[in-house]
Design goal:
9 strands, 38% helix, alpha/beta, 9-stranded mixed sheet
């Protein structure tokens, strides 16, 4: 085989290899719409949970970033739930407009009512067998819509995005949201469970053309569904906390 033929074969291998590498990287990013961010207890302000934050420990792979479940909680006693108004807690340096804060708060409130309402009777008065659910958004970041679309849709840009994912665990130009929440007995105020969780946009092509708060909304959807599923499994006795 002459040098020209060898070069031709090498170029062909490179041409074929690059798309295969891109596909492999794409598979590694798992094409999820939202992904969990690891949280260290020492790095959380816990503006909403305040002193109770000290009870939190790091959650497992399929759990929230930080969590606490009262080992003495009588979960099967609860069949109803009060959902308190969701609030937004942020410092004075936040760049999120008050209108966007309200929009995100309203969306989380709506999703909690929709998801929890499928599992429990929603009431507005404390009483026996009634849990109280309190949640606050403590941070949010908007995605960069134009650059986000390019990084998800254009093959070369998406390959670079996946390289960033492998190096840092995050995709570029994505949005994010962080939540603090607690469940208490509506009568005694006893803490039953608490969580702190942060999620960012994943590597899914389906999020390429979403609006700037789409990643935050996907995180909210995940939290509302997770809250309903976990609380329902605990109160029904089908799963241990």
């Amino acid at each position: 085989m002459n040098i020209k033929s060898i070069n031709s074969v090498s170029q062909t291998k490179v041409a074929v290899g690059l798309p295969l590498i891109a596909l492999c990287l794409l598979a590694l990013s798992a094409c999820t719409t939202t992904q969990k961010v690891d949280i260290k207890q020492s790095g959380v302000n816990c503006a909403f949970l305040a002193d109770d934050c000290s009870l939190l420990t790091v959650g497992g792979k399929d759990q929230t970033g930080l969590r606490y479940v009262n080992p003495a909680a009588q979960w099967r006693h609860y069949t109803k739930i009060i959902i308190d108004p969701v609030t937004f807690w942020s410092g004075s340096s936040t760049q999120i407009s008050s209108s966007d804060q309200q929009m995100l708060v309203n969306y989380l409130s709506q999703q909690l009512k929709e998801q929890l309402g499928q599992k429990f009777e929603i009431v507005d008065q404390p009483g026996p067998g009634v849990m109280k659910f309190d949640a606050a958004l403590t941070d949010a970041e908007a995605a960069t819509p134009g650059l986000r679309s390019i990084s998800m849709i254009v093959p070369q840009a998406h390959m670079l995005s996946n390289l960033k994912y492998l190096a840092t665990g995050t995709m570029p130009f994505v949005g994010a949201a962080q939540v603090e929440a607690k469940v208490t007995d509506s009568v005694t105020g006893q803490i039953l469970a608490m969580v702190v969780d942060k999620r960012i946009g994943g590597g899914s092509f389906t999020t390429g053309f979403q609006w700037q708060w789409g990643d935050a909304e996907n995180a909210i959807n995940h939290w509302a569904e997770l809250a309903a599923t976990r609380l329902s499994s605990w109160t029904s006795g089908t799963a241990a906390p």
